[in-house]
Amino acid sequence: MVLDSATVAGNVGRVLERLGAAAERARRPVGSVRLVAASKTVPPAAVRAASEAGIAEFGENYVQELREKKDAAPGATWHFIGTLQASSAHHLAGLADVVQTLVPGKATTRLARRAADVGRTIPSLIEVDFTGERTGVAPDGVEAFADEVVDLDGLELAGLMTIPPLTASAEDARPYFVRLRALGDRVRDAHPTAVQLSMGMSLDYEVAVEEGATIVRVGTAIFGERPRA
User: Fold this and answer.
1) 166 DSSP 8-state letter
2) Which of 25, 54, 208, 211 is most buried, most CB within 10 Å of its CB?
3) What is the C-alpha R_g of the chain?
4) How many Cβ atoms sit within 10 Å of the Cβ of residue 111?
5) C-alpha–C-alpha distance, residues 69 and 43, integer Å
6) Exposed, middle or buried, 206 (CB in 10 Å: 0-12/13-18/19+)?
7) How many CB atoms lie within 10 A of CB 29?
8) At 91, is the pLDDT very low, low, confident or very high (cuts 50, 70, 90)?
9) Which of 187, 186, 184, 147 is nearest to 162 (CA)?
10) Residue 229 above 50 pLDDT?
């Protein structure tokens, strides 16, 4: 894993350059896409280096890691991008600035209830599963779930998120990004706050931007390969 601050800074610069080029190809304003550095398993020192290199938003998969790393990037926006668990969702009400992985069930209701109790309204995205095998809402259930989310005190429906199936190339992921954009258009027609499309990671974020991503989640391209278990 990359830990050297100069290397992290160089990686951040390259990602930002490629992000801007993708936006230009799509005739979108450079800087219109939010870059979230996915920092799962990354030590606080690397998070600090990315913050010093200009990263303003980070994404964590686990509550405990989010808690441990927040101080490494003061003032940053922290996204929860892992599977929402009923046993820990309530802790996110005081830790996360954005939750990207809403699915129907107790975890979402617990998150909403605790956020409302502490006077917060957390921008949240519905996780969409196009594979039928992962955590997330099937495409044909997203609009009904969106109607439920907007009625929950403590949450604001901000948009949709997806992780496409593993593909051989970035181009192979494009159809899934197209589908999320179309689904997002339908949700936004009913719920105007749902403007965000979180899609695209290190392999395919440029294609995602070309297809309308407003948030990309990039880990390996910034921090290097994570150690394999």
Assistant:
1) P
2) 208
3) 17
4) 27
5) 8
6) buried
7) 10
8) very high
9) 184
10) no
Q: Is the pLDDT of residue 2 over 80?
A: no
CA angle 174, 203, 207 (to 5 degrees): 35
Q: Is the CB of residue 88 less than 8 Å from the CB of residue 122?
A: no
Express each pLDDT in 150-173 by its tens digit.
999 999 999 999 999 988 899 999
CA distance 148 to 39: 30
Look-up of token digits 């921090």: 223
Helix axes 44-52, 5-25, angle to 10 degrees: 50
In whole numbers, what is the pLDDT of the chain averaged over residues? 95
pLDDT digits (tens, 9 = 90+) for 124-142: 999 999 998 889 999 999 9
In whole angstroms, how far apart are CA 8 and each of 42, 53, 216, 219?
A: 12, 8, 18, 11
- 31: pLDDT confidence band, cut at 50, 70 and 90? confident
Query: The tokens 């005190």 sit on which residue?
Result: 153
Q: What is the DSSP letter of 71?
A: G
Read off φ and ψ for residue 162, nearest 5 degrees.
-150, 155
Instruction: Answer whether 174's CB lies under 8 Å from 209's CB.
Output: no
Kindly report the CATH number that applies to the domain delimited by 5-223.
3.20.20.10
